[in-house]
Amino acid sequence: MKMPQTMERPLATVDVAIFAIVDNALQVLLVRRPDCAGEPFPGCWALPGGYIDVHKDASLEACAMRKLREKTGVRSPYLEQLGSWGSAKRDPRGYTITCVYFALLNAELVTLDHSGKVEAPTWQPVDGDGVRERLGFDHATLLAAALQRLRNKVEYTSLPAFLLPESFTLSDLQSAYETVLNRAVDKSAFRTRMLAADFIEPTGEQRASVTRPALLYRLKVRTPVLFPRTFSPRGETG
Amino acid sequence: MKMPQTMERPLATVDVAIFAIVDNALQVLLVRRPDCAGEPFPGCWALPGGYIDVHKDASLEACAMRKLREKTGVRSPYLEQLGSWGSAKRDPRGYTITCVYFALLNAELVTLDHSGKVEAPTWQPVDGDGVRERLGFDHATLLAAALQRLRNKVEYTSLPAFLLPESFTLSDLQSAYETVLNRAVDKSAFRTRMLAADFIEPTGEQRASVTRPALLYRLKVRTPVLFPRTFSPRGETG
DNA sequence: CTAATAAGGTTGCATAGTACAACTAAACTC
DNA sequence: GAGTTTAGTTGTACTATGCAACCTTATTAG
User: Fold this and answer.
1) CA of A225 and C1' of D9: distance in angstroms?
2) How far is the CA of B212 from the C1' of C9 (A)?
3) Domain A165-219 has CATH 3.40.190.10
């Protein structure tokens, strides 16, 4: 085997698929590629990301968190590693490996910096027309994988709660599930299930509205909760 | 931002956690680190792995498949990407990123090459005494993550079927589930569930034994099957 | 030939979760 | 105070499965 010093090293990057609910739709934060010569995919959209800095980034997750903070200013979103892609073909500049994360956050916490830069990040509906076609590199593949993971996990976790503000109603929560799933869910079963999972608690406040006010809830735990699966013996508590 | 050419590049490797059932126990294939000076973690055990070859490895998965084939000779196991770990501290030689895969295969297909080499791979029980302590690098962490992913997925997928030979009985399959989960599961519900998932079919043969012979089955599909989850409307077929 | 043994495979019942649908409750508007 | 809208509950049917008992089919011992 060759020694590591003499091995040709691939470039290593981290990309982040940042999701939020904007205008009642699931949207992803995209940046525009610089439109100058020599840059790959000029003018295309891309997931925020960049090279790993071996001096600044103590870990891959720290690197993803840094990218996320740079684009959104948000410091503590839900962040999960999605997977890695690597090949000689995905970037014309050579063999690259990218480690992709996906993040969930409340859009209200984000102030997008639109100060004249062309590369300013913007929200784009995940199912919007031609988003896939306008994405550079293999980012359409990465985004599709992130969406698939998210929609799959929503079926059995509390992930959509991380798209909401600090306090929310059960209807807000159900709406977040439905927005992500792009499908209606049953109100009765939904409420039973959420309360049984015991990851939210009433704040004691209500939200005033033009109709009957709804109880407000907050997260009891900052980590996502898994709903019950199968094969579990009856007696168990976890 | 710095140009990629001037960026200090981390080393990129791929490691593989290869699982099989040996002696009725879930075991993982480990290799021994060379015991010479200058090598990190001399004499320790480690997951099989190595540097990505930007000329030979068309993708990360191709690299993992290559490592797997080199150690086991098996060409088409179940292979799934687990995740990536990167930091300056996990290898004394510098900042490294490793992309970890896990594989499931039937131990009978593997012929371990024990021709005098010290680095020969060997099966080790995953819950064996001190396996964690004897692992070099952060491979104890990687192995624990692989085990967690595997045990979690077993609850709702057909993964254990990939640990069996081409034809097997339902009792064999149940035994594989129980070996991975380290727990007994109900026979009746198990059989109903496996047959309902419709991923195996009878071969038409029986296995003779000292007691009543059992029907043999084979996989209908080579891809893993997900068992039903929740939130699904009644009418749907998939 | 018969009974014991042991594993394969089935049946029946209780329960939990939830899909579906209809209902009640609490606020506002007019 | 009737109508409207959303919040939240109740009740029924169905499904999967945990649990346990039962029947089936082979071998082996006597």
Assistant:
1) 25
2) 10
3) no
